[in-house]
């Protein structure tokens, strides 16, 4: 009697289909794996070739940059050497100019000192040439006037009628509304001293006065301190201008820059 059912070792339909599908998948996976390895090998080759090209390009660029840097360095070095040379030349020239300036400054100082000395000497000589002169200031100008006669009349008023006059004339710029000075040259210095000493009091009621004939420098020095001299006069300090400066008692030059207390005591 025969057995019923499938023979031993046989598979059912579903199992056969499943096994066939599994085999098909296995074969497909094997083929994909092989294809992937081939593509990977191909990509590795491309990357390697590309990397070699890039490295070569970078090396060439580096070489070009290095060459340019060497060129710039060489040119920069030449420029520095040129500038060093120019700076050295300028330093030497500057040193020479400083020495010349020092010499010129010393010469200028000497010239100024010499000029001042000459100016002082000329001023002294001019002062000496004017030592017997006086000026009548503010005397009314008249037509066809005789300055010699006017001078004699004025000197008679101040108590020196017998003084000898060498010459007398109007002096100075013509200014509208102002009478020019009458410049009088006396023969004797002692007559001038007597006239100037008596003039302030003798001519106090007149519209004119007598003053010394000062040089330009002496007149500037006198005017420079006039305000302070007036202030000192109000404080009881009496100063007189002669020989080129304001002087206190005893003929000592008055120091306007000294402390007020010491000046008052000295005066």
UniProtKB/TrEMBL annotation:
The residue stretches assigned to a coiled coil in this entry are 55-114
Keyword annotations of the record = Coiled coil
Cite the record's Basic residues compositional bias ranges.
1-17
Q: Residue ranges of region Disordered? A: 1-20
UniProt entry tagged with the keyword Coiled coil = yes
Which PANTHER family does UniProt cross-reference here?
A: ENDONUCLEASE-REVERSE TRANSCRIPTASE
The protein's name is Uncharacterized protein
